[in-house]
Amino acid sequence: MQLAHRLQPLQSNVFADMDQAKARARSAGREIIDLSLGSSDLPTAEHITQTIAHSLSDPSTHGYLLFHGTQPFRQAAAAWYTRKFGIPVDPETEVLALIGSQEGTAHLPLAVLNPGEFALLLDPGYPSHAGGVYLASGQIYPMPLLAENGFLPIFADIPEPVLAQARLMVLSYPHNPTAACAPLAFFQEAVAFCQAHNLVLAHDFPYADLTFEDVTLPSILQADPDKTVSIEFFSLSKSYNMGGFRVGYAIGNATLITALRQVKAAVDFNQYQGILHGAVAALTGPQTGVQAMVNTFRQRRDACIHALDRIGWQAPTPTATMYIWAKLPTAWTQSSMEFCTQLVEATGVALSPGSGFGKTGEGYVRFALVHEPPILATAIDRIAQFLSQV
Ligand SMILES: Cc1ncc(COP(=O)(O)O)c(C=O)c1O
Hints:
With 390 residues, the chain is α/β, with parallel strands linked by helices. It has 14 helices and 12 strands. The protein folds into 2 domains: 5-43 and 289-388, Aspartate Aminotransferase, domain 1 (Alpha-Beta Complex), CATH 3.90.1150.10; 46-284, Type I PLP-dependent aspartate aminotransferase-like (Major domain) (Aspartate Aminotransferase, domain 2), CATH 3.40.640.10. The strands form 3 sheets. It has a 7-stranded mixed β-sheet, sandwiched between helices. The protein is globular, with a radius of gyration of 21 Å. Bound molecules: pyridoxal-5'-phosphate.
């Protein structure tokens, strides 16, 4: 059978190879401690699950959910955004419900790229950003993120011929996988650059709430309050532990919102309405669970950094996200993929190889803090044992 060429870059990926290594470790009887996936282990708050459960017995929620049906959700999202960032948003024209933010960022290239045109992506970066560009038959220009630049891209390094064919730039801070944060001044530079070069600027912002500092992280729309080129993607997966429910939203330039809605209209009828009712309860209800989630990840971050320090593996302490981005130990001379496959097969501890997020991620591994501190400590003891034998 002949499949489309655009599928080729999606076929081999580091994470599929890691899944096989995990399966081999499992069948060899190893107990797996999986720190490779950024999927929160925390439960969704009861007032949210009860709202969804209540919806189930209401037959009016059982049909297709068309655009007018998502209005209460759009209003809740707009109000949440304005409360947090102080910028007015029109729920009718500037908000779009999504089946998770990943769905939105992966579909956006279909709305803005013609085949062969370039998207400027962070390297390392979240894999579905590249996946969406491949599905739209676009080309990727990876903007390398280096520690010495605070893991921020240098726009002046983008070659002119690439810029001439580029239509889209995708940013995402706090950043997965490096956990870097971007100041508002960087977003202002990005907006000015995209305006000057006629680029759409997408900002993937699922960790908007997951910060350990007492400041609100900047939104891209604070650098583009008139929403001239920008669209920002939000998720309820991290803030409200709702990853499995698949709910997120986009806020931004009305033309981009309409274009993305047109792509989606060909693909889906939105998720189950009860999930959006639960999301409204999350966005408009008590926010104490958000703070509890942040406190949990702060404790895990501290426990993990402390345990790594104890075994002589220094990694920067992240100020946001649920990840630690650590340089491979100096004793290790092979690739990040070799490190992760050998580690999981020998110890059952699964980490993500930096190369899975892009070429510039080589030399690093990512820890996802998705277990309690005692399990993290066990994982790091096992890593110490593994390293003592290399
Ligand atoms: C940068 C980034 N974007 C999107 C997602 C997925 O979010 P959602 O569950 O809303 O699709 C993740 C999840 O880890 C992420 O790290």
